[in-house]
Design brief:
By secondary structure, the protein is mainly alpha-helical. It is built from five helices and no strands.
Length: 154
């Protein structure tokens, strides 16, 4: 269960973080298409990521605003503002709970478009592509630097 939650959390975070790039971070559309994700599902997944990203940003802004309010109340005197501080802390708790609920809901929705297995396979393809690109860069750098170590072509 912990592994599933950790994987889900990583998937949502990676998709939210990279939603503005048009791809899913290191995983490109072609990687998903190669493992059987349809164009419609890919489009829907991107739309979900965009919506989720906006929601996360809104909650983060609200949370930051409340944190600033709590700091102001602390600076003005914690003892005299204890009731207001408790209200602010309760609101912060609600925001955090909302964020976690939204995370689970978006994860469930995302699996309608891209299964865990498809994501893992697409990610593996992307990692293979990146490894090949890095090897090519190293080879080019070696050739430019006149590297004559065994296994390289000068």
């Amino acid at each position: 269960m912990k592994k599933w939650l950790l994987f889900s959390w990583m998937l949502v975070i990676s998709m939210v973080v990279y939603s503005s790039s048009g791809d899913f971070g290191i995983v490109y559309d072609e990687d998903f298409k190669a493992v059987g994700v349809s164009d419609v599902n890919l489009k829907n997944a991107k739309l979900l990521m965009e919506t989720t990203s906006i929601d996360v940003k809104k909650l983060s802004l609200n949370k930051r605003q409340l944190e600033l309010e709590a700091n102001r109340l602390l600076l003005d005197g914690a003892e005299k503002n204890i009731q207001e501080l408790e209200k602010v802390m309760d609101k912060l708790g609600v925001i955090e709970a909302t964020r976690l609920k939204n995370q689970v809901k978006s994860q469930i929705q995302m699996y309608k478009y891209i299964t865990r297995q498809q994501y893992i396979q697409a990610r593996e393809r992307a990692l293979g592509r990146i490894k090949k690109e890095q090897e090519a860069e190293i080879k080019i750098e070696g050739e430019l630097n006149g590297d004559t170590t065994p296994g390289t072509n000068p």
